[in-house]
């Protein structure tokens, strides 16, 4: 007859529950995995499968009861770590979406908005197009697998402990989040510059020939130039987007490798 003590049972529960919490946090916030169109059962099933695969390689866990107050604190901490890792990768998509918003507004397509199920809001057509392009680069480069590899490594570099993870994790995530604005402007800068030159030319043309209807010819020209520049720059967007993904992975590794406890 097999007998189990309460300590052994708590150890088994903790060995699955705490890694599963970090994994589910990443799955909920990471691109593609956390998409709203993916059913919750699929997300939970994927998290459980990854937890069963990664649990044997997880370092020794703290001797805390998972149902105690200390166990609850560890659970919340693992959820925050997983959400932070997934959100760090999601920032790259936010950069591209901002570039699409700036481009669409400059082209005059700010009124052409559609419902985005990912952000549960309305975004411009150019923004959604660039977001789909970014997803293709993300999947074609196997970055979703690299993200899972970084998650597995995080259990070694940032083990599950009862000690607080410190504030460096949040500081790194906030600093990386600042790249949304700079990267978004950089990605949209070629198209915005071309449209600025186009608007200057239209202004000079209007001054030279006041009888021209600026509103009649201005919008078709700016939209046409915007689409032409978008077609010209598309083959070159993969490189900066790939660099942003590499920066995101670097930020994730920095978050999980240097998040040390605060020293009072």
From TrEMBL:
InterPro entries: FliR (IPR006303), T3SS_IM_R (IPR002010). It holds the Pfam family Bac_export_1. The chain crosses the membrane at residues 12-32, 44-61, 67-88, 129-152, 180-202, 214-238. It comes from the Bacteria. Keywords: Bacterial flagellum, Cell membrane, Cell projection, Cilium, Flagellum, Membrane, Transmembrane, Transmembrane helix. It is a multi-pass membrane protein. It is found in: Cell membrane; Bacterial flagellum basal body. Role in flagellar biosynthesis. Belongs to the FliR/MopE/SpaR family. This is Flagellar biosynthetic protein FliR. It comes from Keguizhuia sedimenti.
């Amino acid at each position: 007859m097999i007998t189990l003590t309460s300590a052994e049972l708590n150890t088994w529960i903790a060995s699955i529950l705490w890694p599963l919490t970090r994994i589910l946090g990443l799955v909920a916030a990471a691109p593609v995995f956390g998409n709203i169109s993916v059913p919750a059962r699929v997300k939970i099933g994927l998290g459980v499968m990854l937890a069963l695969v990664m649990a044997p390689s997880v370092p020794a866990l703290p001797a805390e009861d998972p149902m105690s107050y200390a166990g609850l604190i560890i659970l919340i901490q693992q959820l925050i770590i997983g959400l932070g890792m997934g959100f760090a990768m999601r920032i790259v998509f936010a950069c591209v979406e901002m570039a699409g918003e700036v481009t669409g507004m400059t082209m005059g397509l700010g009124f052409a908005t559609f419902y985005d199920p990912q952000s549960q809001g309305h975004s411009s057509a150019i923004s959604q197009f660039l977001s789909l392009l970014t997803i293709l680069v993300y999947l074609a480069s196997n970055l979703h697998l690299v993200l899972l590899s970084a998650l597995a490594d995080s259990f070694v570099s940032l083990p599950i402990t009862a000690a607080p993870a410190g504030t460096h994790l949040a500081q790194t995530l906030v600093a990386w989040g600042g790249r949304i604005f700079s990267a978004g402007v950089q990605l949209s800068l070629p198209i915005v510059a071309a449209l600025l030159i186009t608007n200057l030319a239209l202004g000079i043309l209007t001054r030279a020939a006041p009888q021209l209807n600026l509103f009649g010819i201005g919008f078709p020209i700016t939209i046409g130039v915007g689409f032409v520049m978008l077609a010209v720059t598309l083959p070159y967007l993969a490189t900066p987007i790939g660099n942003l993904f590499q920066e995101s992975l670097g930020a994730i590794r920095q978050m999980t490798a240097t998040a040390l406890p605060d020293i009072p």
